[in-house]
Hints:
By secondary structure, the chain is of the alpha/beta class. The protein has helices spanning about 15-35, 50-55, 85-95, 115-130, 185-190, 205-210; strands at about 10, 40-45, 70, 75, 140-145, 170, 180-185, 195-200, 230-235. The longest helix is centred in the N-terminal third of the chain and has 23 residues, at about 15-35.
Amino acid sequence: xxxxxxxxxxxxxxxxxxxxxxxxxxxxxxxxxxxxxxxxxxxxxxxxxxxxxxxxxxxxxxxxxxxxxxxxxxxxxxxxxxxxxxxxxxxxxxxxxxxxxxxxxxxxxxxxxxxxxxxxxxxxxxxxxxxxxxxxxxxxxxxxxxxxxxxxxxxxxxxxxxxxxxxxxxxxxxxxxxxxxxxxxxxxxxxxxxxxxxxxxxxxxxxxxxxxxxxxxxxxxxxxxxxxxxxxxxxxxxxxxxxxxxx
Length: 247
Ligand SMILES: O=C(O)[C@H](O)[C@@H](O)[C@H](O)[C@H](O)COP(=O)(O)O
């Protein structure tokens, strides 16, 4: 496919090495984007990524935080006070410790009546930053992957995998609790300038293999993420990379 660049796979020997490698590259991309266009837009995911990014970015002195726009690749539709809120984890472990501007931290509105409304509201918030783009092109999206191959809140065999129009969708049947979530859709993921997957542990080895070396077309959500003109990097530990023939 024109424009699809080669996937770059990085196999590290520990979580600490993954954290260092990912955060070093995040900082490099941020600095390059800020130099080029005066801003850096990044989408964050929940789960173990919250620890890698919070621990790996919080104390760095080479980050121009006020130039960052932070979005969420997905978010649980729960109050920010709920421990399940991805925003609340980042706020406690990272945002409270750095000079990120609140007005450039683009969160969902968990006080809306329904998750559908929250998805629509989040769409509007993204479009205020990207008013000219039918599909926004984020500078970097940081994704995790579940053992089942889900990413963001896009789950195997879920109808949302077929969503081609919306840039943000909602679901109330997430197999991974909590059930109500919003998520960026595949058109947005595949329009990013850079996409990183971060996956560690043997439990992910089969999903990594099925995503990166599928027999035929990929059927797992993580395997469907192939940015058309952007760079795709997978950061794995040896356990998660165990099933790969090419490393
Ligand atoms: O909010 C979420 O639940 C995440 O965005 C989700 O997509 C996560 O990235 C994967 O479930 C992997 O989570 P782990 O890295 O913790 O396994």
